[in-house]
Amino acid sequence: MDTRIVRNLFKEKFGTEGMLYFSPGRINLIGEHTDYNGGCVLPGAIDKGILAEIKPNGTDKVRAYSADLQAYAEFGLNEEDKPEASWAHYIFGVCREMLKRGAQIKGFDTVFSGDVPLGAGLSSSAALESTFAFALNEIYKAGFDKKELVLIGQKTEHHYCGVNCGIMDQFASVFGKAGNLIRLDCSTMEYEYIPFDPQGYKLVLIDSVTKHELVDSPYNKRRQSCERAAAAIAGNHPEVKLLGDATLEMLEEVKDKISEEDYMRATYAIQENSRLADTCEALKRGDYETVGKNIYATHHGMSKLYEVSTEELDFLNDVAKECGVTGSRIMGGGFGGCTINLVKDAYYDRFIETAISRFKTKFGKEPKVYPVTISDGARKLN
Predict the structure, then answer these.
(1) 44 and 169 in a common domain
(2) Which of 66, 84, 148, 67 is nearest to 75 (CA)?
(3) What's the pLDDT at 218?
(4) What is the pLDDT of residue 222?
(5) 240: CB partners within 8 A, 6+ apart
(6) Would you state the pLDDT for residue 101?
(7) Which residue from 125, 21, 137 is spatially nearest to 376, judged by alpha carbons?
(8) How far apart are the first and last CA of the chain?
(9) What are the GO MF terms of this UniProt record (predicted)?
(10) What pLDDT is attached to residue 214?
(11) 132 and 91 co-located in one domain
């Protein structure tokens, strides 16, 4: 990201210089719809994110400028001072959540800019929250540890942005480490760094530039399916609280007691938990072919058992297979967004060209392409 744009704008707007902070967006290699089923996820921070220049201004007001939106907001730090602009809610929310926890946050000036593509499922909002949480924690010597910064970002979403999100996005943004993914249990915040150093491979996202309108709430319906299946299993195995505790054998025992749909959803959830564990072991061995097979199996499960794919995403997955891509799947909750692809260097150019031209021929629009590298988490730059 070009720091000069932010620096020049800050000088122009506020006539001085501040400190630079950066937090990344994230990918999730495998482990989709596992968090609420008591399983783990496997995210990593990427080399795209949010950059902010920040300096205390000696007042009780925050003066913020979004370089990308070319928009300015000014607001106080009391609950009733919530700004109009939705983009400013993220900054205001972080300040409020820190104040509620006893931090002495005062007014500051800031200019920020991002190169996380919006709507691609890379968590630009978590990157924004993490940038300000990390920066203000340091500037005002608030003394929060990294896990507290994660929760500050999550509660900002819950209380000020109307999104009831989990912790994966903020966790990856704060805890990211170059050359590693993070095996994270979202319910306990226990985590382990898993080596990710795919020599001879690239990671690339292909954005279907499609977001399907969701009639009713398919996420809630799938969650309820999983909860019903887990409850049925618990009848025989009281130790099972969520599907993350269950095996396929346990599910077979109750197959005739639950609907076919609930059985399919639960099969995917249990299989995905074991795929994630298997993928972590494969990564520790440097076995990227097994990793790739598991990624394809996740796509199949999300498409056929969990039924959260789209025609566009299935098409991109088929093209990846035909082009010899090692692993490809939908990334994120589904119903639109990107595929994440693990591609050998030798096949990369041909795959990108083929995916763009064939997608454009079939759907009449070009997909977007985002190469990503696994990188460090929130940090001060200067």
Answers:
(1) yes
(2) 84
(3) 82
(4) 92
(5) 230, 233, 234, 246, 250
(6) 98
(7) 21
(8) 14
(9) ATP binding; galactokinase activity; metal ion binding
(10) 57
(11) yes
Q: Which residues contact 170 (CB under 8 A, 6 or more apart)?
A: 126, 129, 130, 149, 150, 151, 153, 154
Cα(125)–Cα(20) distance, integer angstroms? 18
Chunked into runs of 10 residues, the chain (382 residues) has average pLDDT values of 93 98 96 92 96 97 97 98 96 98 98 86 90 98 98 96 89 98 94 96 95 69 95 97 96 98 98 97 98 98 96 97 98 90 98 98 97 97 86
Q: Give the span between the Cα atoms of 313 and 52, in whole angstroms.
A: 34
Three-state DSSP class for residue 27: strand
CATH number at residue 41: 3.30.230.10
Q: What pLDDT sits at residue 187?
A: 85
In total, the chain counts a number of residues equal to 382
- Residue 90: which of 116, 102, 207, 245 has the closest Cα? 116
274: helix, strand or coil? helix
Q: What is the pLDDT of residue 16?
A: 97
Residue with structure tokens 């205001």?
Answer: 92
The residues carrying an active-site annotation are: 169
DSSP secondary structure letter of residue 107: -
Q: Which domain holds residue 262?
A: 199-369
What string of DSSP letters covers 230-270?
A: HHHHHHH-TT-SSGGG--HHHHHHTGGGS-HHHHHHHHHHH
The reported pLDDT for the residue numbered 29 is 97
**Could you identify the residue written with the tokens 């072919």?**
289
Instruction: Note whether 165 and 188 are within 8 A (CB).
Output: no
**Which candidate, 124, 271, 295, places its Cα nearest to that of 204?**
295
Distance between CA atoms of residues 63 and 108, nearest Å: 6
Cα 111–Cα 3–Cα 366 angle in degrees, nearest 5:
95
Q: Which pLDDT score is estimated for 236?
A: 97
Residue 77 carries which side chain, given as an amino acid letter?
Answer: L
Cα→Cα distances 369→111, 207, 375, Å = 27, 6, 19
Tokens matching residue 219: 């996420």
Structure-block tokens of residue 63: 């003066």
Q: Which residue has the tokens 């996202």?
A: 205
Query: Which CATH number does the domain housing residue 271 bear?
Result: 3.30.70.890
Task: Count up the domains in the chain and report the number.
Answer: 2
* Residue 306 sits in the same domain as residue 352: yes
- Determine the Cα angle at 170 with ends 334 and 198, to 5°: 70
Averaged pLDDT score across all residues of the chain: 95
